[in-house]
């Protein structure tokens, strides 16, 4: 609304300026005549001064909002035609040097109200009437000025048609501008919807991962809870049994086991809560070593019962450009996929999942490999496509690897998959160092 008001005020200032400039030009006419002829015709000067003052008054009234622009333009035409007619009559009628200006009246009036047809039409009709009146006052026979009136009418008609064409072009341009603005708004809305859908898709996959991790929580929590409960029963029996011999070393060992069990439960709950917490992922650099450790802890609630996870991490790895939360999510996804691959392998086998990290020329290279049956060759080209999965119906969403590939690609890294010669699959994650990314920028 504020922008529209500003545009309207700007248009009013331009139209008001047209009235003031025209008034100045009209006042300049007697001065030019005085310089050329050295004489002043009082009646002529009076008409020109009154004409000029009327335009100043119209401009002021329109600028203050007293007159609408179309009404001010119509009044300008009503004033212009009689004033020009009087000037021509005073200076010689059809023989006046100003006679040709009468045909320009519709074109001149079009400047004052280009948005309205009425002022130009009034000026056109007034121009034809003025030609007839001037010729009649000069005693010219009608047959003699009929052709002249027709020519002037054709010129005025061109002026009317030109004004109509201008208005159509202006309206078409306004419609085109509105369509462009609507298209931009639709594009912006589409981009907002795309980003929201992308966030929701990432959130769904993250919650799927949380669900997969949570499936192993019962087993992981029940084990420490079992010996915590057993130890508490033993402590209760020993402390309440006054006749029993006290064994401080055994009690100390039981308390230590109890404490370790409680800490294990606390760690599992803390990791899951942090991973499941909503919010935007950080774009700050991350430590591969810390991300691997966190991912291993999160995935251990599922992997512990399947086999072993070995880590081979080169000390002192530099930070990488992928954010900590996304890097952990990628690694957890790869570890859970490895667990699924081993779990579905025939014949059954104990899982041996290895995670390696080392510095290479391209940055930091991370590998996650398993001893499952590998990836079908026909599935390798489509492995990172959204909604493509090799898992049985109801077990995979087809979004996990696609999101991992997208996260890594945005950070300038690569994620590839291959089959190991000795069996199983290997996922290779290459990320740029932060220093390298900064220097490239």
UniProtKB/TrEMBL annotation:
Residues spanning the signal sequence: none
Entry's EC annotation: 2.7.13.3
Coiled coil: 174-207
Domain Histidine kinase residue range list: 216-435
SUPFAM superfamilies: ATPase domain of HSP90 chaperone/DNA topoisomerase II/histidine kinase (SSF55874), Homodimeric domain of signal transducing histidine kinase (SSF47384)
TM regions (residue ranges): 18-36, 42-60, 67-90, 96-113, 120-138, 144-161
A family per Pfam: HisKA
InterPro entries: HATPase_C_sf, HATPase_dom, His_kinase_dom, HisK_dim/P_dom, HisK_dim/P_sf, Sig_transdc_His_kin-like_C
GO molecular function: ATP binding; phosphorelay sensor kinase activity
Keywords carried by this UniProt record: ATP-binding, Coiled coil, Kinase, Membrane, Nucleotide-binding, Phosphoprotein, Transferase, Transmembrane, Transmembrane helix, Two-component regulatory system
Substrates-to-products reaction catalysed: ATP + protein L-histidine = ADP + protein N-phospho-L-histidine
The protein's name: histidine kinase
Record organism: Archangium violaceum Cb vi76
């Amino acid at each position: 609304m504020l922008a529209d008001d500003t545009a309207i005020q700007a248009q009013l200032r331009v139209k008001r300026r047209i009235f003031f400039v025209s008034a100045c030009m009209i006042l300049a006419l007697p001065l030019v005549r005085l310089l050329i002829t050295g004489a002043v015709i009082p009646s002529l000067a009076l008409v020109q001064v009154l004409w000029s003052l009327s335009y100043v008054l119209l401009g002021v009234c329109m600028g203050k909002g007293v007159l609408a622009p179309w009404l001010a333009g119509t009044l300008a035409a009503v004033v212009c035609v009689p004033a020009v007619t009087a000037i021509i009559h005073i200076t010689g009628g059809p023989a006046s040097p100003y006679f040709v200006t009468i045909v320009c009246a519709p074109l001149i009036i079009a400047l004052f109200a280009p948005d309205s047809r009425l002022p130009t039409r009034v000026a056109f009709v007034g121009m034809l009437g003025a030609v007839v009146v001037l010729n009649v006052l000069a005693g010219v026979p009608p047959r003699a000025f009929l052709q002249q009136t027709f020519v002037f009418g054709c010129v005025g008609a061109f002026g009317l048609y030109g004004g109509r064409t201008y208005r159509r072009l202006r309206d078409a341009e306004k419609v085109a501008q509105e369509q462009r603005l609507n298209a931009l708004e639709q594009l912006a809305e589409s981009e907002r919807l795309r980003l929201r859908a992308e966030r929701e898709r990432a959130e769904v996959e993250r919650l799927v991962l949380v669900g997969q991790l949570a499936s192993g929580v019962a087993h992981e929590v029940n084990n420490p809870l079992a010996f915590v409960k057993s130890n508490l029963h033993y402590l209760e029996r020993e402390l309440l049994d006054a006749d029993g011999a006290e064994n401080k070393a055994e009690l100390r060992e039981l308390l230590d086991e109890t404490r370790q069990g409680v800490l294990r439960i606390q760690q599992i709950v803390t990791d899951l809560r942090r991973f499941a917490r909503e919010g935007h992922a950080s774009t700050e650099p991350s430590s591969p070593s810390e991300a691997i450790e966190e991912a291993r802890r999160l995935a251990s609630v599922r992997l512990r019962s399947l086999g072993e996870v070995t880590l081979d991490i080169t000390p002192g790895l530099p930070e990488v450009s992928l954010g900590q939360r996304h890097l952990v999510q990628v690694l957890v996804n790869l570890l859970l996929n490895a667990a699924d691959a081993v779990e579905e392998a025939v014949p059954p086998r104990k899982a041996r999942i290895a995670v390696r990290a080392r510095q290479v020329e391209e940055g930091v290279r991370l590998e996650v490999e398993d001893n499952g049956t590998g990836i079908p060759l026909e599935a390798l080209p489509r492995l990172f496509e959204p909604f493509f999965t090799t898992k049985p119906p109801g077990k995979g969403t087809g979004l996990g690897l696609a999101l991992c590939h997208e996260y890594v690609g945005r950070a300038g890294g690569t994620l590839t998959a291959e089959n190991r010669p000795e069996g199983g699959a290997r996922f290779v994650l290459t990320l740029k160092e932060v220093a390298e990314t900064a220097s490239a920028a």
